[in-house]
Amino acid sequence: MSVGDALVRPAGDVKGVVLAVRVGKGDTVLDPREVVLSATGADAARIAALAPGDAVTLTSAATPGWEMVTHALGGDRFIVQDGMVRVSAVFGRTIGPAADFVHPRTAVGLRADGSLVMATVDGRQPGYSIGASVYEMGELMRSMGAVTAINLDGGGSTTMVVRPPGDQTLRVANRPADGDERPVTNELVVYSSDPFPPVVSAPVTRLAKDRALLPDGSIPVSVSWSAADPSGVADVTLQRQIDGGGWEELGLLAETDRSVQVALTRGRHYAFRVRATDALGNLGPWTTGAGVVGRVRQQDHGGVTYSGDWATRSDPDASGRSFSSATARGSALTVSFTGESIGWVAPRVEDGGRAEVTIDGGAPTAVELRSDDGADRLIVYRRRLTDGPHVLRLTVTSGPPDIVRVDAFVILAPAP
To answer: Going by DSSP bridges, is the β-strand pair 219-224/259-264 parallel, antiparallel, or unpaired?
Structure first.
């Protein structure tokens, strides 16, 4: 019979129209908004007398407090009550010895916060699992926080099917005693209204501006990504790979982090990958960024050409133990390189000067080197580019006595 938009509840009236009458036949296929009304004994004759098109009113009643329930699934007994393992009798009879029998078990319970706990225990498979008694099942549910729990149909019917977070297909999570899923008349289904994991962008590696090269020449970089999900992003995992080896996890400060600062050993190949879990437990796949290799080019490298009053000075705090400096306005240098990022390394000190930097003849960027705090080996300028050959030009815009110093240049290029 069709009930239209009405909901069949434990208590109340539902009006419907008979669509078909089937006597002694089961396995009725239901379309949306259709229900089956079945009966045995004397009531079966009343239903058999109905004809398609007849109007029918279903009236039901329930114990107070159950009127608004939309789905109910019965079990054979309580196994946890009031937060304690307390096995109840079945249908008012005594508990009986069957509660001590060991079988495959299925149970469902509620925690104090109202969250659902479901569990299965395999059995009848010596060497793998023989099963559990009702009391043992109650202890398992209590250990998972259930304050109330019931034992459901077990034995060969014990089956749990799940869609792991991040997967798109279902799989049987346990090992049913029959070797496969047994046909059953009912089941408890929990589904997510958001079946999709977070959308995560591939990690991008950039030179870290105003961060210092480490004393061993390691290059400071930031690794950043984005992650979004309608239910919220609950957790993010970032991993690093070096020279094609195994992946290792990098710790994040918080679940909301979308970037981390790391140091690259020059000349080694790095790759980063990230994945995220949303607030509903959907785990996304790994998203891997482009691999990179970092190199440090000292200021006296053959690929650097100078014009003006540049001079070389020794300095134990410089990355290569020396730097080039100029005071005359208009003094310049050019660096030819191939890569996707370049950074200028210099100290910021009290007598630091000013300069402009251009890439491939583009618009200039002003760089200020004066600082009262003083710091060495800083990446004072950085630029991310399309991978390929490029030319950086640096021009001094201050004058004496201010000094523009060049310690080194750092370059990021795609890992081969």
So the answer is: antiparallel
The span from the CA of 201 to the CA of 205, in Å, is: 12
Closest CA to 148 of 82, 228, 101, 196: 82
Is the domain spanning 199-289 CATH 3.40.50.1470? The answer is: no
pTM reported for the whole predicted model: 0.59
**How far apart (Å, rounded) are the C-alpha atoms in residues 352 and 332?**
16
Task: Measure the CA dihedral 396/401/402/407, to 10°.
Answer: 80
The fold of 296-414 is Jelly Rolls (2.60.120)
Q: Are the CB atoms for 33 and 2 separated by under 8 Å?
A: yes
Range(s) within the chain of domains with CATH label 2.60.120.260: 296-414
What's phi and psi for 12, nearest 5 deg?
Answer: 125, 180
> Where exactly does CATH 2.60.40.10 map onto the chain?
199-289
Closest CA to 79 of 159, 156, 161, 148: 148
Q: What is the pLDDT of residues 57-80, one digit of tens each?
A: 999 898 888 888 877 888 889 999
Nearest to residue 150, comparing CAs of 224, 90, 222? Answer: 90
- Could you report the per-residue pLDDT of 182-192, keeping only the tens digit for each? 998 888 998 77
Question: What DSSP designation does 156 have?
Answer: G
Residues 6+ apart with CB under 8 A from 362: none
Give the pLDDT band of residue 416 (cuts 50, 70, 90): confident
Q: Is the peptide bond before 401 cis (omega within 30 degrees of 0)?
A: yes
